[in-house]
Amino acid sequence: MKKVVVILSGGMDSSLTAYIMKNRGYEIVPLHFSYGQRTEKRELQAFHDISNSLNVIGRYTIQLPFFKDIGIGTTSLIDRDMQINEKGVSTSSIPNSYVPFRNGIMLSIATAVAEKEGAEGIAIGVVEEDSSGYPDCRENFISTFEKSINLGTKQGKFRIFRPLVNLHKSEIVREAIRYGVPLHLTWSCYQREDKACGVCDSCRLRLNGFKLAGVKDPIEYVENTKYKG
After folding, report:
1. Phi, psi (5° rounding) for residue 3?
2. With a cut of 50, which residues of the chain have pLDDT below it?
3. Contact (CB, 8 A) for 124 and 10
């Protein structure tokens, strides 16, 4: 069976990506990164839960401790002295939750894993249409990066699958339901591990997607959340 390495954070987007690739007939090789993010433990739990739901035995969990050196003073996902944005997503600026070149670094490592596994390619759940505006989630970045990894690998014929890149969050919710993704096992919140905060950029985008899709989000949010989609 043909293989694909799926970068799986345990969030809704990456989980749907894994289910789509399995539906396309690929053997899934899940790959998760822990890099000192605030919700590191909760994301890892979601990764294993989703991998188990896909009946995947072999999986990779990779630690990236150097991100802490990069992230302090740079990104609120790592630096706990920085305030996570709770004012909503702006199309005019990149939020402080952006981790410098995170997807580029992760895709590079995923390429090495794909070479080892003899995989056809890598799948990543980047979303450009409804997103926080991260530059490494853009379609033109991914397509250019695909050309680069094929110039620098022995195999030279890898594909980077990004099935969600042009979807809106409401479409992602509907597709996740259609593919049977266990959304109650996913985790998107940037700053809490017990209950989702409901106010960070990621929670806002997720909640709004469920609202527009006309579906209730199955995960639990803090009771006094100021934002309900």
Report:
1. -110, 155
2. none
3. no
DSSP-assigned states of every residue in 81-115: TSPPP-S---SSS--TTPPTTHHHHHHHHHHHHHH
Q: Which domains can be identified in the chain, with CATH numbers? A: 3-213 (3.40.50.620)
**Continuous segment of H or E residues that includes residue 205:** helix 201-213
Tokens of 170: 């409401």
Q: Which distant-in-sequence residues (6+ apart) come within 8 Å of 37 by Cβ?
A: 43, 77, 78, 99
Residues 6+ apart with CB under 8 A from 149: 107, 108, 111, 158, 160
CA angle at 127 for the pair 126 and 128, rounded to the nearest 5°: 120
Q: Which amino acid is at 133?
A: G
Tell me the per-residue pLDDT of 135-169, one tens digit each, with 9 for 90 and over. 999 999 999 999 999 999 998 899 999 999 999 99
Within a 13 Å sphere around the CA of 100, how many CA atoms are in the beta-carbon half?
A: 11
Instruction: Find, among 223, 213, 217, the residue nearest to 188 by Cα.
Output: 217
H or E element at residue 53: helix 40-53
